[in-house]
Design goal:
The structure is a homotetramer of 470-residue chains. Chain A contains 12 helices and 14 strands. By secondary structure, the first copy, chain A, is an alpha/beta fold. The termini of chain A are far apart. Chains A and C meet through α5 and α6 of A and α5 and α6 of C.
């Protein structure tokens, strides 16, 4: 093998030089898309209600020459924006939904804009904007160099529970894609590992009300059904793989203490690094729920909630993004940003162990983050790789007011540029070397090992457009 | 004793004739107080918020020559209305609070005036009005016959959980009373037995939140605390006297399934025919709650709720009211009322076994109803007896929309008159024969058997004026 | 009806005089049968192993002219002893099985003859002997007075769990009987009320063993199955009639803590005053067991244990025995017996409220004792009444060493004579007045109210001859 | 550093040559000690009852010139055998206790010698014999080469629960030791990682018996206490680190279903890779037990059982044994052994993934086996390293009849020689290079990180000499 080393290096260097040009295009647009990210942050719309956010991104991509198709798969805020034609088809994804109750100003102390209102505690204002920024830069580089193929941006709504990507998958919208390059906000710059598969929903128990003092024997307690189920769930924990998570709340535990509860409701989520293992566990969870109903003489109905697959890692694309993020590089805090970061870190209540935003970790990893996402489902259908960019101050976790504060600040916008640079470099590498897509497909098949993507979200189901507000 | 029988009978007959006159006074005012009961029914104010209802009764009693003192024992709607002076002191009690969510028109189908608004599902609009009607009639008879002593009406707010009478007891307002004659709406005319003692409140568990997928071992689940407590409560059931009742709901079962619950809350009520037995059981319930906190590594706080004593029956006064209700007599339905009753009974879903309103059951009973009331507490401090009058269509239970419908109808007002007649006859018998009060006191001491009234509602506590609305 | 009163009284008096003669026959044999009771007490054989006890009674009855048929319904120790022929058929029943672990000398301090060996803690040594004594006396009186009909003694094994009478019922051995007069040892002389119906058995859970540290997720815990079932049972308690009893032990809770239990076993008994209500509850108990298996991924098998019906009271026969026990009378303690009684009572740990053996309570009662017996099953097939006789020192309960001590003492033998006298008087009254049997049949049909005897013990089942020793 | 490489290598090679000689001594004695291992296998004595086994090893070591001291630290079967004097002190350890119920012939089908009798299912017959074989070989090599220092063999009884080494540690018997080289039978040849710390014992609940039908409210159920505790334990699982194990059985779940259980007992073991983390978890387990008692009104007593520390790995000694096992080498199966192995593997019910006995894995590992041992406690007091040798057919786990079969076969004896060779080579390397002991001490201190060995087995406690038989 030794004799081939040198020419390969030459080739790689040549590519790198060409690829580097795309970074200039990123730079040219980064202020504009930073502004867009801020507008989305200020609007902070919940899943399936991202009307303004989606429109803003569509308009910008259309203005940059993309062919935009909106209102897809039954979701008004879902869209695609396509440039070019023919093979290969390289895709980016943009999310833009906010989280309930996380309204927050861009200051390092907890301070909502409107108390109780939604906020971008997961940085999706940056997510959709950075991918769009990358798309515009790639398009310009494709045009500049006459690169063949199709670039497509997926505007994917309601990642926080609504599962927009799953309905887009069901609608066949990802059918022709060769590779998806994705990213997510975080507190460091790195190639991402996998995410936990999850499944969840509401277990509704229906019993018979009765006066709890006068005639408790005439009643059948729905709360008993829920509690027997949940007690059984606790016994289940010992007998599932230790990486499994099962967590729940009781969303309705009865109306008044002197009435035998005729209704009770449990909201339960289970997770496992492997969607198929999770399926087996889920059947046992359903058995616990059925047992609760059986033993209490009540009736149980299950209402499907979020069901996201774990991420099927792609070794080839992981390496592509690893090279890209290494070249994209991190960034430095300004003194003001440093002060902001330090003040914010004081509110975390725990020492910060995370590296700074100037560090970059380009190696692939098999590590499984405890989060879940519908990008996991995409990864079972299309070869996909993903990075994390440092949009949050080190130590800040997602779904916090601190993350919402960062997502509206210059720190968030700097991390967003790391992401856009990485995605742009990665995409150009793939357009330059279509053979890598064969390798990515091989890696995909290897990891798939004959399995197929499945989901409990029915293919003919209507997206739950009111899930975030009901 | 035989030689005394004849004169005694003569005396009784004489009294009875005299006593009968009070019924004329009742008749003279029954339309007016029926109207008042209807106004209170239309206002339907929750416990401690009975401003209009209380004012209406105060005004009427004041207009009839009673000395009214309002805003007592920290409760704006509590009042007394007194006529006469010196011994003996005979008391009547009037409640006037409504129940949440039971708004209902006076029609035999479920039809709220305002959906979700309060309604008089326990007939307290009749309760306060009938006692006031009786008070006015007794006063007129006392004046007519120059009877010595004091007649006092207690306007007692918030029976439905607020425990107004307990605060009035704590304030010493019942200190000089020799006998209390009371009544409650129901579906038949009878001397009442006992009621269950109850005690209840909110068990608040405080844990440590954590991401339920990423770091469940850092969390201490408040919901675990609640569930371990409640599981233990279920085990307790086998080992308490079988007449005991323990019932609960979970009022807060966590915020989101992916967060280890930092807070959870249980609302639990326990009952037993004997307040002292209940005290022992309650200590064991508290032990279960402490065990829940201990085993889950959480903290538990208890917030005292309603605590009502069982009724200490009074044999002498029970006989007095037995004689009185026998003479007061029942009533007949008009054809319209019969039709109303039949239509209403169709909505009950069970065959009606209750006797009609024309029947009267004058015998004392040791039977224990499954309800609880703060009139139980009064019965431990003052000799007290109580009747039920047929204000509801046979088969209709309290705390239902059907009861609310009846309480606003002519049926309710007819039952109210039965009650007023009985109370009036009973009170006059006592004013006529003060020696019976000695016997009532003896009966009281016998049943008390050296025990003392106790309550968990602290003597220096502020009444929970917002309990019905928070 | 008034004009018939006098002759009826005359007749009754005449009968009573005649009936009294049977007491002389009882007296003539009471020493002999007292001795037999002592021999059975000394042998103390467990259910279905009462070889010597059964043989002793058979031999005595055969020697007195009864036609003995043994080894019935698959049970070597079951027998009948018949005298006379034709209608009516009046039956007595004799039990003779002992209890495990209650070996005890006839002294007032706990002192086993052989530690751990069986003992007559339920006084069945007296039960079988007194009924045999009565049978011999009745036979002699029938002969003396030429009374028509059949007298039959049923030797019924294994009342303490084996249910000998049920197999005899299944075999049709009670088919021609008009009335059963029965008795049971106790601490007072009275007509008995009802007994609780019971049902029980073993719930066996089968799981999958695994190393509890290395691979708990490979295991399916049978103990989890049992515990989920039992937790559900605890929740059931609130929602069954309060007179219900459900009690259990865990007879196998796993082999070693480091092995996920592949087997676990629960022994559970439920009771209710009404066998049909119990049936409904039992279905819910089975649902709890099925839920335990379902939720734990294990398999459950149920092994039927004891199933006894409640007693169907018979008003006519209850009156017959009431009259009889009143005439039979109680007895006085000798000074030695009084001393024995007082010493024994000191070991009870609670003040004694029971009346002395000189008292007799002849009134029928609807009270339900907390015990269960297969004589309950007989009462659903044949009109049956039962008394309790004071064979135990006042305050001594069944199934205790104290009861075993009494059952071997002169106190036990005196109580046995009360029983024999009562049964003899009652049977002679029935032979004298066959019309009362019509009335007994009417009372039977009234209480039966169209229902039929049912049992979970299969008609074609083999008696569990080893139940007491396995 | 480069310039030192060559001399170091020279030194190592010189040492290796010298060290190799010790293998000749091993060979010279291996048949004899193989025979001893077989005798111990045939005797198969339970913990603290290993009289013959201990005597056999003592006798053999004494015969080979060791100074034997027996009956140590209160344990008749504990002993030390010492050769030489002064520093350094290098120690080997020998176990020789069997397991209950694992009696098995040396055949590949389940076939006990005496059903239910003890058997060497953990191969301790080989453990003690191989260490003794190594000791004799090392001694001869020390004599041959005049090596300075002390060699000591520790005969450590009752590893299977009795914790003999802990009592020897408490008695100060390891005080002067510089390094312990240890081994354990297994199904491959490798340097061992860590073991789980464990802790366990019996939770005894004391309640109040009562008739479960007649007076359940007078009873306080000990079984309720146990079940409330265990339910709480199930809730605990979610909130401990996922590597934790908690497993239990119910060893006494009540006497009879109609008696409220006055006694119940749980045997529970918990494990974690870190003894200090386990301590924190154990406190929470105790809280669950206390909560069970509190909530059920019962009393709980804890009886300490086995408590073993996790292994504190030693990097230096791990490398020493790594080099040694690499040189010691594995072995080949004969055709007969191959057939035996294949037949035995058929009984395992799972495909075998383990490597053959010809493979050797010399690299240190941080992996944590799911087993626990009192050698873990030694490792917190003295620098210790450990290997596993292939005494069992690949795929055979400890504590099985298959392991017992192997331990009596030529396969077991071949694995035992691998162990003896490795220990001998390792010990000689340490005697040759005392400086490595400094490095071992440094490694020890680094891993200890200022912590100290602790155990719940009290220093002044008597060894539970009857633990295996009570």
């Amino acid at each position: 093998m030794k004799q081939n080393l040198f020419p390969v290096v030459i080739l790689a260097v040549a590519n790198l030089y060409a690829a580097d040009d795309v970074l200039n295009h990123v730079s040219a647009h980064e202020a504009r898309f930073g502004e867009i990210s801020r507008q989305i942050w200020e609007n902070a719309e919940l899943g399936f209600h991202e009307t303004k956010s989606s429109a803003l991104l569509q308009q910008e991509l259309r203005a940059n020459g993309f062919d935009v198709r909106a209102n897809l798969a039954g979701m008004p805020t879902a869209f695609t924006a396509t440039f070019g034609s023919g093979k290969p088809v390289i895709a980016l994804m943009g999310e833009f939904d906010a989280l309930p109750g996380l309204s927050q100003k861009d200051v390092p102390t907890q301070s909502p804009v409107v108390a109780g209102a939604p906020g971008h505690g997961c940085g999706h204002n940056l997510l959709g904007s950075a991918s769009a920024l990358a798309a515009v830069a790639i398009k310009e580089e494709m045009q500049a160099r006459g690169l063949k193929g199709t670039l497509r941006y997926y505007g994917t709504p309601a990642e926080e529970g609504g599962g927009g990507k799953i309905y887009m998958l069901h609608a066949g919208l990802f059918k022709d894609v060769d590779a998806v390059l994705a990213w997510h906000p975080g507190d460091s710059n790195r190639v991402s590992g996998s995410l936990l598969a999850n499944n969840g929903g509401r277990f509704k128990f229906y019993g018979v009300a009765a006066h709890a003092a006068a005639a408790p024997d005439h009643g059948r307690s729905a709360l008993d059904g829920a509690m027997i189920m949940l007690n059984a769930i606790e016994f289940l924990r010992e007998h599932v793989p230790q990486e499994t998570r099962i967590h729940y709340i009781i969303t309705n535990g009865g109306q008044a203490p002197n009435i035998v509860p005729a209704f009770a409701e449990v909201n339960l989520v289970a997770r496992n690094p492997d969607a198929q293992v999770l399926n087996g566990i889920w059947e046992r969870i359903m058995d616990c729920a059925k047992a609760g109903a059986l033993a209490s003489g009540t009736r149980m109905e299950f209402e499907q909630g979020t069901n996201y697959s774990n991420v099927l890692l792609n070794d080839t694309l992981g390496d592509v993004l690893g090279r890209a993020i290494k070249k994209a590089g991190g960034y430095q805090f300004t003194p003001e940003e440093k002060k902001f970061a330090e003040e914010l870190q004081k509110t975390l209540g725990a020492p910060v162990k995370s590296p700074g935003p100037d560090k970059v970790f380009p190696d692939k990893t098999e590590a499984v983050s405890s989060a879940s996402s519908d990008s996991g489902d995409v990864s079972w259908v299309v070869p996909t790789a993903q990075i994390t960019a440092a949009t949050f101050v080190p130590g800040v976790g997602a779904h916090t007011w601190q993350a919402a504060a960062c997502a509206g600040s210059s720190i968030g916008r700097k991390g967003m540029v790391v992401a856009a640079r990485t995605l742009a470099l990665g995409a150009i590498e793939l357009f330059d070397n279509p053979d890598e897509l064969k390798s990515a497909r091989d890696s995909f098949e290897t990891r798939l090992a004959g399995r197929k993507w499945t989901t409990r979200i029915p293919a003919d189901g209507k997206p739950p457009l009111d899930y975030a507000t009901k």
